[in-house]
Amino acid sequence: MVKAAAVVGFNPENIISDALFYDGNAMTSAEIQTFLDAKIGACRNGKCLNVLTTGISSRDAVYSQSTGNLICSAIQGGSMKVSELIYRVQVACGISAKVILVTLQKEQGLTTSREPSDWNLKAAMGASCPDTAPCDPAFAGVGPQILKGTQQLKTYKAAKFAKQPGRNYVGYSPTESCGGTYLNIQNYATAALYSYTPYQPNAAALAAGYGLGDGCSSYGNRNFYNYYTDWFGSTQRDPAAEIQTEYVAQGGAATLGAPTSGLLTLELNGGGYARAYANGSIYWTVGNGAVTVKAGVMRDYYWARGGADGDLGWPIANQSAVSGTLTSGTAQAFTGGAVYASAAGTFAVRGDLRAAYFSTGGATGAYGWPTSDQTCFVTTCQQNFEGGLIVAGPGGSAAVTEPVRTAYLAAGGIAGSWGVPVTNTAAIPANGGGYGQAFAGGSVYYRANDRAWFVTGAIRDKYWSLSGAAGPLGFPLAEQEVLSSSTCRQRFDGGWVLWTASDGARIGDPAVDDAYAVAGGAKGVLGARTATFVAYSYNGGGFAEVFVGGAIFYKPSVGAHAVTGAVRAAYFATGGAAGALGWPTSDQTCSGSTCQQAFEGGVIVAGPAGSSTVTDPVRAGFLAAGGFTGSWGMPLLSVGAIAANGGGFGQAFAGGSAYYRAGGAAWYVPAGPIRDKYWGLDGAAGSLGFPLGAQDCTNTSSCRQRFDHGWILWTASGGARVGDPAVDAAYAAAGGAAGVLGARTGTFVWYPYNGSGVAEVFAGGAVFSKEGAGAHAVTGAVRVSYFATGGAAGAYGWPTSDQVCTATSCQQSFEGGTITVAR
Asked: How far is 451 from 460, CA to CA, in rounded Å?
C-alpha cells in the first residue's frame, strides 16, 4: 500500500482513544474472518491469516503482581482459525480486535499478505522482538505472538508499567542523535503504543504517507494510525459528547435535572466515564456507549453496590418496564449482572445464576421476579425467585420449586446437608404419579399438592436398587428417622427401609418386626426371614413379609398379624389380601390341631378335616359364641346360597346352622328338636322360610324360634311343632280344646295375601294372625261367609277382632269390613 499524501489528523499525544483501543467487544469471530478474507483474498502458500489454523494452550487469568489488576482473563486454548484466536484474545484482554489486526499489519504485513514467510509468522506482532536484539524464541509463531503481543498492550495500563499518560520524552528513532520531543500523552492507549513501539514519527515520516521519510524517520505508530483510519475510520471517540447526546435523548433537564458533577473518569471494571444529574446518572464505556441509570430504587441499589466500581460494573442498557409472569416491575442490565425492581424488592441477578435465569425467560418466565439477592457457598450460588429457587455454579444450574424449596432451605440450601441440586424436577408416572429431584446429598420426592420428603445415605441406596419411586416401595411418606447412632428408618408407600450398622439396609416395617418378635422370631412358627417384602394395593393397601413358615400381613388400620399353617393355605385359596377376606385383623387362636383367624371379610377355621370360612353376618354370632370351641362348633361347610323364599344364605356348623338374607342379620338354629323340625320342613327353602330371631328357651322344658311364616314351638311334653305364640294365646282365650275351636288338627299355614300372615286350623274353626291386626278365631257361620269371599286372600283380608254374638246374630270385624250372620 502506497499513500503519497501526507498523514492528516495524526496527534502524537492522542493517537487513538482509550474507548476504541480497549474495546473487548469490537468485532465478532465471524466479522474478523470476513475482514481477513476481504483483505487477503486467495492465499498463495497456505500460510495466510485467513486460512491458517494455529493454536495455544489454555491459560489461566493473569493479574499484575504490582497492582493486582486483571490483565487478561482465562482463555480456552486449542487448535482454531486465526480469526477465532484473535476474537478470544480480544475478549480476554480487553484489547480491540481492530488494534490486533492493525498491529499484525504494521509489524509483519500479515493482515494483507497472500504469501507470508515463516519469519513473518514467527514474529507476527513483533512481541518480544526489540529493535536492538533478536526475538525471544519462546514466543515464536502466530498463536504465541498474538497472545503475548495483546497481553503486553494491556499490561502497560493494568500494571502501570512503562510509559503512562502525562509528560513523556519520545524519540524519533533508535538513533539518539535524531532527537525527539516531550509529549503530554493524553490517554493509556497512546501510552501503550509508545511503550510497545517507543518512537514517534517525525515530520518527514508524516509527509510521506505510507512511504519513506528521512534517516531519522520511524514508521510503527504512523503506520498504526494510517491502517486504523483507512480500515476502520476515526481513532477518536468523545465520551463527553456521547453523554450529552444521551442526556438530551432522555429529556434533558426536564427528566434528569441539572448536572451535579463534571465528567468523571472511573478506572475499575474496564474503565469509563460518568456524569451525575439530579435525577439520574449517565455512564459511558467503549463497548456500550452512554447509558442512563435513573434516580430511585434502581440507582440507590446500584450505588449501594459500588456503582460502576462495584460488582455490577457498567450499565449496558437503559432501564425498561417488564410485565412479568407473576409481577410487573423494571429491569436494567449491567456488565456484571441485571437488576430487577418489583413489589418483591430490588435485587441483582449475576453470573451463572443470570445465565440460568435468562434461559427460563427471566422475569417473564416461570420463575418471575427475584425475591432475594444471591447467596454463595464456595463456588455455587443460590437465589430465590417468585416461582422457585435457582442454584448455579461451575457444575451447571438447576431450579428448586415448591414444595421442595421450603424443605431445601430449611435444610440449609446449598450449604446444608442436601448439597447442590444435581437435576431439575422430573415427573415420575409410576405408583400414582409424582415428582423427584436429585441433590448431591440425596434425592427428594413428592406428589402433587403434598409435601416433599428427602431420602439419603444407605436408605437411598437400597431404595434406588429397587427403582426408587418407580419401584415397589413407591414414594416416601415421611422423613428419615434416626432412632440411634446405629439405626435409621424411613417409611414409603410400600413399606419401610430399615438400616442398622450390623445388618445394613433392608425393606421391612416396624409393626411387622414387632409381630415377628411376638411370634417367636426365627425360633418361632414363622422361622427365618426370606427377604421377601411386598406392598399390596388391594383392599386399602398394606404390606406382607414372607418367612420360611408363613407370612405377616400388615395394614395400618388393622395391625400386623402372622398367617401360618392350614389357615394360610385356606387364606391364599381365597386370594389372600387381594381376595374377599382382605387383611387379617387378629392373630391365630388354636385348640388342638384346629385354628381360627379373623380377617376383614370373615373368619377362617382350619384343621385336619379341612377348612371353612365364616363371613359376615354369620361371623359376629360365631365369634360371640366362642368360635369353633364354642357352642356352634366347627363350620362343616362354607356359606351356601338358598334361592327359595326371596333368597338368602345358610351355613352348617357342628352345633347348628346359621341363616341370613343379604343386608340382614344372621340367625342361628341350634342342633336339637327345633332344627330337626325345621329341617323336616326343608329348612329355609321350605314353608317356614328363614329364621327371624334367635331361639328362645324360657326354661329347660320350653323353647321357641320365629321364622318368616311362623314359629317352631317345643315343649318337653309335646315335642316340636309349627305354631305362633299369638295364635296359641287366641286359642287359649277361646277355651282351648274344650272351647269352640276344639282340638288341633296339626295344620298351620302361612299366607302371602293382603300383607301376609299365618293361620292354624282346629276341629271347630281357625285362628288367623297378622302383625298389626292381631290373632283372632273365625268360627261357625261367620267362618263360612268369610271363606265364601276368599278368606284372608279375599276382599275382607285378615280379622281385626274376635266374634261378638247376640241371641239373634254374630258379627266379626275384618280389614275390609264386618261380617254379620243370623243365629
From this structure: 18
Q: Which three cell numbers stand for residue 518?
A: 411376638
Dist CA 348 CA 64 (whole Å): 29
Q: Which residues pair with 562 in a beta bridge?
A: 552
Other Cβ atoms within 10 Å of 532 Cβ, number:
11
Helix (H) or strand (E) holding 488: strand 487-492
List Cβ neighbours of 61 (8 Å cut-off, separation of 6 or more).
Answer: 70, 72, 73, 74
Contacts of 236 (CB under 8 A, 6+ apart): 14, 16, 17, 20
Blockwise average pLDDT, block size 10, the chain, 823 residues: 75 93 94 97 97 95 95 96 97 97 97 96 91 83 96 96 95 96 95 96 96 96 96 90 94 96 88 94 89 96 95 94 83 94 94 91 90 94 94 92 95 94 95 95 95 96 95 93 92 90 88 93 93 86 92 94 95 94 95 95 92 94 94 92 96 96 95 95 94 90 91 91 92 94 91 92 95 94 95 96 95 96 91
Which H, E and C letters describe 585-620, residue by residue?
CCCCEEECCEEEEEECCEEEEEECCEEEEEECCHHH
372's grid cell: 432475594
Backbone angles phi, psi at 769, to 5 degrees: -135, 125
Checking 116-120 for CB contacts under 8 A at 24+ apart, the result is 116/45, 116/47, 116/48, 116/49, 118/47
| Cα distance between residue 815 and residue 792, in whole Å | 9
C-alpha distances (whole Å) from 560 to each of 394, 494, 564 are 50, 14, 13
Phi-psi region of 461 (alpha: psi -120 to 50; beta: other; left: phi over 0): alpha
Report the 3 state secondary structure along 658-726. EEECCCCCEEEEECCHHHHHHHHCCHHHCCCCCECCCCEEEECCEEEEEECCEEEEEECCCEEEEECHH
Query: Are the C-beta atoms of residues 277 and 256 closer than 8 Å to each other?
Result: yes
Residue 659: closest CA among 590, 708, 624 = 708
Whether omega for the bond prior to residue 403 falls within 30 degrees of 0, making it cis, is yes
Number of other residues whose CB lies within 10 A of the CB of residue 174:
13
Radius of gyration for the alpha carbons in the chain, expressed in angstroms and rounded:
53
Give 35's contacts (C-beta < 8 A, 6+ positions apart): 27, 101, 231
One-letter amino acid for residue 427 of the chain: A
CB 751, CB 758: distance < 8 Å: yes
Nearest CA to 222 among 427, 465, 11? 11
Cell representation of residue 734: 277361646
pLDDT in tens, 761-776: 999 999 999 989 999 9
Query: What one-letter code names the amino acid at 735?
Result: G
- pLDDT, tens digit, for every residue of 275-291? 999 999 999 987 788 99
3-state secondary structure 106-151: HHHCCCCCCCCCHHHHHCCCCCCCCCCCCCCHHHCCHHHHHHHHHH
Q: Which residues contact 783 (CB under 8 A, 6 or more apart)?
A: 765, 766
- CA angle at 667 for the pair 665 and 671, rounded to the nearest 5°: 165
Cell readout for 812 is: 266379626
Edge-first strand order for the sheet with 328-334 is: 320-323, 328-334, 337-342, 345-349
CA angle in degrees (0–180, nearest 5) for 806-807-808: 90
Cβ partners under 8 Å of residue 638, min gap 6? 612, 613, 651
The answer to whether the CB of 602 falls within 8 A of the CB of 616 is yes
Q: In the chain, how long is the greatest CA-to-CA distance?
A: 177
**Set of cell numbers at residue 685:** 327353602
| Eight-state DSSP code of residue 37 | H
Residue 447, C-alpha cell as written in the block: 406428589
